[in-house]
Amino acid sequence: MGEKLLMKGNEVIAEAALRAGCRHYFGYPITPQTEIAHYLAKKMPELGGTFIQAESEVAAINMVYGAASAGARVLTSSSSPGISLKQEGLSYIAGAELPAVVVNIVRCGPGLGGILPAQCDYFQAVKGGGHGDYKMVVLAPSSVQELYELTVEAFNIADRYRIVSMIMGDGILGQMMESVEFKDVENIDKADKSWATTGTQMKREHNTTTSIYIQPEVLEKHNQKLQAKYRLIEEKETRVESYNCEDADIIVTAFGTVARIVKNVIKMAQKEGIKVGLIRPITLWPFPTAEYEKYADVPKAFLSVELNAGQMVEDVKMAVNGKKPVYFHGRMGGMIPTQKEILDKIKEILNK
Amino acid sequence: MADQQIIMAGFGGQGILSAGRILAYAGMLENKNVSWLPSYGPEMRGGTANCNVIISDEVIGSPILNTATTLIVMNGPSLDKFENAVESGGIIIKDSSLVQRTPERKDVEVYGVPATETAFNMGNPAFANIILLGKLIALTNIVSKENFEVALKKTLPSKKHSLIPVEMKALEFGMQY
């Protein structure tokens, strides 16, 4: 345990990567996450690591592929349009079963959109933005302290399963300052990386990392292996915070920044005698489906609040599976719902 | 006070964001929960800057302030924009050197401090933000003077540490005014 520091979310992601043993960063600047690159540009060389501002996002993600092939802990970060450019590389890395960590500090779209907070890349992150049947573990922190803990965990998960972990935040989390304590990091370099392409020194067969399998029988087997891995991750790595759900009139689902607003709404509602619960998915994939089975009989209805036009609500509906009505409230374009606005929506639903 | 929600606003370059950061750091040194959220939208370039600071005994939910217990303004447009965000019974502190208009609200306490003029006379107009924080500290006891000084040391680069005694004088002025 260290002392408490006051730091920006983006800087904490960068510091967490260093403490998790990451010594390779490849990226291209874009608001509102550039502080990550800025911090690492200074610190990486001091630690003997590699910092490269690539010529493009496409180049950066392929550099990540290379470093991951060699068994290194590697990070890239960007914001929505940049993450779109990285989709092809992410699919290749998933196909080649390589561990890497990607940060998306989401901004509003579509297109260049704007730089303000949004959650409009939920589908892209959890349903597979690139081609092929692949998954990434998507972690959604909601405080600066959690940015630290989940960034460290992202590296551990990536190594444990040879998968891409994505940290998904928004400009509020990236730009805000809160106190953070850097707790000691475990599991650095504990993963078996005997598969890595580190040079044979003429002592073993060549290792290869690839995503091409020309024979259909072989490729189907490869896909089945990937799917088995994803089922194991669903079983072992699903993370969720449930809050006040036991006797709730309505259970709200929200992640990241929005979950914090909903916590304030819960307090406001209590004063008016309305019991509001919160399910906060910490992993967006795997989605905490079991949590909805647990509480499906409790509330009158479910509500998903998001900074988009309604994306996670589809996963909520699948998890609730028709047992209760599921409603949606969202804002777009960098607009943030006020606490009163969410409470009004809750009242409207409960008065139906 | 258990929960202080402060909006600080002015022009870019007046030290709005760094004043908020120093205040949040001092709050953390008081073992309070703190958050600091800057405006980072397109309005930052050459226009207004503002930040939201929360200092609380409780875990902080949303870092975004729709309403505030205190508003500190260093230009006219910021008063226009945020006057109605102050809770009834709350506080408005304005830099009276730069904000001519008197707030229209009758249900809040209003204090004018000639911060920019005083800081200029003290030799460094950049300390106007500190003078206004002095007024805030005197009114609310939000943080101690001692912790404020430590926060200055922690947040300023070491080459600027020689300025801390003058900044503390600026703080004193604001506290006494």
Automatic annotation (TrEMBL), chain A:
Signal peptide: none annotated. One of its GO terms (molecular function) is oxidoreductase activity. CDD domains: TPP_PYR_PFOR_IOR-alpha_like. Gene3D superfamilies: 3.40.50.920, 3.40.50.970. Residues 15-238 form the Pyruvate flavodoxin/ferredoxin oxidoreductase pyrimidine binding domain. Keywords: Oxidoreductase. Residues 248-342 form the Pyruvate:ferredoxin oxidoreductase core domain. Pfam families: PFOR_II, POR_N. This is 3-methyl-2-oxobutanoate dehydrogenase subunit VorB. The gene is vorB.
From TrEMBL, chain B:
SUPFAM superfamilies: Pyruvate-ferredoxin oxidoreductase, PFOR, domain III. Coiled coil: none annotated. GO terms for molecular function: oxidoreductase activity, acting on the aldehyde or oxo group of donors. InterPro entries: 2-oxoglutarate_synth_KorC (IPR052554), Pyrv/ketoisovalerate_OxRed_cat (IPR019752), Pyrv_flavodox_OxRed_cen (IPR002869). It holds the Pfam family POR. The keyword Oxidoreductase applies. Keywords: Oxidoreductase. The keyword Oxidoreductase applies. Residues 12-176 form the Pyruvate/ketoisovalerate oxidoreductase catalytic domain. This is 2-oxoacid:ferredoxin oxidoreductase subunit gamma. The lineage of its organism: Bacteria, Bacillati, Bacillota, Clostridia, Eubacteriales.
